[in-house]
């Protein structure tokens, strides 16, 4: 069938110098794969197993990197809850189309939190000073400045900086008060970036592997996409901290440093689309439309 | 369990005067439901059954409105293909996470196209002149001007205007040449808006009902999310034009006019979030984060 070429995804990508207004027409086109293959080892960082949580679902494993540089107290609490095996027997309780999939424990089935807590002061943002942001030049609908820092998409108003709610980002659910969350209940973005949640909720990390297990969860038919019966929920066998797993069960991720020259090339390859399929090279990109490359070291 | 209030979605919404910089603190807060309930009947339009296609899947029906004002030739071709029952026995062939779900016929299993064609001149954009766009005041990463026209999200550069690739928008797949699509192969956006496809592909409409049937299709493991075996595909029993269906099988949609005062109130309720859950009222919105209200007339 001839469907295969219908939409180019972007594995064939153009290369341009960092944040130049437009690549010269004779700039050699490198695919995204080529950009990554030709990158120096120093442009990659080993993802700390102390910042990885492994969630075991019936159909496979979801692995999330905690954004400990932005939300250190929530990262510490999530580590403590994972060490206490707090989520063993928890469940996916909500799947709302174009919004979030969410998981946690049922209040009727509590479990000791170990060193963890159920309520924590929010970490909606942090001071901008001292954070090296790889900036995007295109405007953003929600913030004065957007870009990437410590491997995550971020925004800033000049004084404060925060993680942005892009597809695959993970946040700590909360109730009506700012400190009613702690990371014990988590959600992941499965649709158009709900950027109105930025600075309203503590964003704690992003999914590095297994996103496709969460995004296809049947949508719940209750209010806000909650499942109406326990039978609709998907069981979580366990959530473990990478550093507590046996070596053989870990995945050794390397993530492209978002302050590297290679990542600037990745951004430009997303801004200017010079693959043959593109009739219009675009010349713009949104902070939630830039891939954050990750590879697995065997 | 206490999860239910964790993330407010926005059924409780604030009202503000149209595109004012900020609502006065004492502006009465109306929920989105209240805004819609209090709207005059003249702010709604009956969706033309000649612009509706009904796709029958094993688990339910997907209904798509064609954007005939922007892409009239593709709308006409899709109507012709539906009348020819061209898609009976077609299939969902692709599901790529955070991108698109796509359907069409296998080349090995052709079917007469009736008055329809397999190749059509593109309708990537149209003249801006004469189009009444309800504009958003917030900047956009991709276009000088964004807003809504004829019930759809749109962008413009001042001279030309085009439909934007938001979640739930439907496009006509194409190969490498501009005229290699015709609407015979269609896709729907299931993730972060791939706005780099704007003006590179003809966008033909949006899903009004049944989006949750498409968005949860298991992701394909082949390149670009294509299914690797026929067994993974989901069969399409039929695609029919609304005006060809018996009255009893039609859904009588009313869509909020995007040039109405009520819709301007909807936009402002999305820009300024005054529901009690929101600690920061946001004050911004992206063109792909505004709901386009639709209701069913019983």
Topology:
Two copies of one chain form a homodimer.
Chain A: H1 32-37, E1 44-46, E2 52-57, E3 60-66, H2 72-83, E4 91-95, E5 100-104, E6 126-127, E7 134-135, E8 145-149, E9 152-156, E10 160-163, E11 169-172, E12 186-189, E13 202-209, H3 211-215, E14 234-235, E15 238-241, E16 253-256, H4 261-271, E17 294-296
In short:
The structure is a homodimer of 298-residue chains. Chain A is of the alpha+beta class and 298 residues long.
SSE order of chain A in H/E notation? HEEEHEEEEEEEEEEHEEEHE
The helix fraction of chain A, in percent, is: 10-25%
Count of discrete alpha- or pi-helical segments spanning 4 or more residues of chain A: 4
- The third-level CATH topology of the largest domain in chain A is Cyclophilin
Strand order in space, largest sheet of chain A = 14-4-5-12-11-13-3-2-15
CATH architecture of the largest domain in chain A: Beta Barrel
| Shape descriptor of chain A | globular
What class, by secondary structure content of chain A? alpha+beta
Mean pLDDT of chain A: 92
What number of domains of chain A? 2
Low-confidence stretches of chain A: 1-20
Amino-to-carboxy terminus distance of chain A: 35 Å
- Oligomeric state of the chains in view: homodimer
The CATH superfamily title of the largest domain in chain A? Cyclophilin-like
Biggest interface between protein chains, with counts per chain?
A: A-B, 75 and 74 residues
What's the alpha carbon Rg of chain A, rounded to whole Å? 20 Å
């Amino acid at each position: 069938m001839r469907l295969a070429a219908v939409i180019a995804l972007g594995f064939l990508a153009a290369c341009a110098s960092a944040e130049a207004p437009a690549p010269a027409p004779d700039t050699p086109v490198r695919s995204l794969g080529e950009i990554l293959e030709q990158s120096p080892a120093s442009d990659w960082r080993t993802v700390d197993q102390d910042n990885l949580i492994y969630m075991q679902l019936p159909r496979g494993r979801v692995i999330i990197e905690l954004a400990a540089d932005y939300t250190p107290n929530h990262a510490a609490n999530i580590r403590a809850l994972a060490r206490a095996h707090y989520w063993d027997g928890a469940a996916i309780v909500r799947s709302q189309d174009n919004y979030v999939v969410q998981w946690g424990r049922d209040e009727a089935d509590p479990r000791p939190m170990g060193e963890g807590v159920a309520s924590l002061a929010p970490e909606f943002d942090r001071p901008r000073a001292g954070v090296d942001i790889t900036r995007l030049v295109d405007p953003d609908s929600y913030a004065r400045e957007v870009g990437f820092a410590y491997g995550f998409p971020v925004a800033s108003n000049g004084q404060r900086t925060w993680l942005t709610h892009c597809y695959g980002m993970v946040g700590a659910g909360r109730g009506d008060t700012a400190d009613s969350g702690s990371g014990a209940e988590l959600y992941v973005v499965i649709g158009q970036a709900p950027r109105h949640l930025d600075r309203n909720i503590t964003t704690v990390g992003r999914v590095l592997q297994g996103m496709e297990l969460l995004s296809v969860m049947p949508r719940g038919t209750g209010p806000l996409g909650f499942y109406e019966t326990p039978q609709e929920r998907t069981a979580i066998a366990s959530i473990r901290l990478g550093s507590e797993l046996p070596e053989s069960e870990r995945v050794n991720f390397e993530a492209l440093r978002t302050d590297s020259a290679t990542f600037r090339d990745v951004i430009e390859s997303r801004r200017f689309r010079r693959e043959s399929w593109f009739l219009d090279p675009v010349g713009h990109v949104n902070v939630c439309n830039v891939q954050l490359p990750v590879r697995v070291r065997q």
